[in-house]
Amino acid sequence: MSGCSSDDSADGGDSAAGGEPDKVAYITAFGAVGRDAFVWVAKEKGFFKEAGIEVEIKEGAGNVPNLTALKAGQVQFGALDFTGAVIQAGRGEFTEWRAIAAIHQRTLLAVMTTKDTNIASPRDLAGKTMATGAGSVTELLFPAYAQLAGLDPKTVKIQGAQTTALNGLMASRRVDALGTFLLSRGALATVSKKEVVVLPYSDYLGDLFGNAIITTPKLIQDDPDLVRRFTDAALKGLQYSLDNAEEAATILNKVKPSYTVAAGKGEIDAMAPYVPPNGGAKIGSMDEGRVARTIAILQGAKLMPEGLTPAKVADFTFVPKT
Hints:
Strand order of the largest sheet: 3-1-5-12-6
CATH class of the largest domain: Alpha Beta
């Protein structure tokens, strides 16, 4: 990564003053899909260039591979599921990362089924089989979600599966429901050719964030200006994507031709209600109180021991509330 101090130019980095852009690598939360389109949008629309940054975008594969890439220095920034990463930090598995902005203000985890199962509420899952990614955050949090919803989690049979196989299992009715991300609603509807029912975890676990942008504590300490410029440009891409979903999906389609514009637009539109913060706060902002409550929920669910603090998983200085 090439260094570029905040004194190089007034607008940072690549300017008429002749400063070279900072070169960084970013890893998406998972592959090249609608929820991650904003980073390609920020690159295509020149938001990173305006910030004096040249970004190499890599396709992620979930929390563990992404945190491993960050730890190894293969990337300087990335996206991941914040709740899952907090659990991993609390267990001491990955600790050298900090969330610097929220992509989704609410978790995107959900129970999903088709209308013909007659499952319309969490309590209807009693005696049913739910498939979810083996060891996934969806599986780990299900007991807490179920208990808050008035359902005994022990009455639900959990079937571990590859995430790519979930929709097929539901479409063929080999299971009664899925533990998945609500943004896959359109894909399930397409595969099953049935009306889809979504039961969001956020109905009962409202303090949990969804995906977040992360970096390392070392980079925050060594070059906070770069972190701020990257964060601002990425969030500008996120806002642009929400405002121009079809264009954002078209930009993504250029990168990933196998991923259709319709699919990308559908996912961006589906995540749009989960991005804006409450109370007029800036897009991307993270509330320290909510992070503390997230930690308390996860500790209460026995998913990690006590001792973790908000400062060990998030830096709240890069996206002020107002």
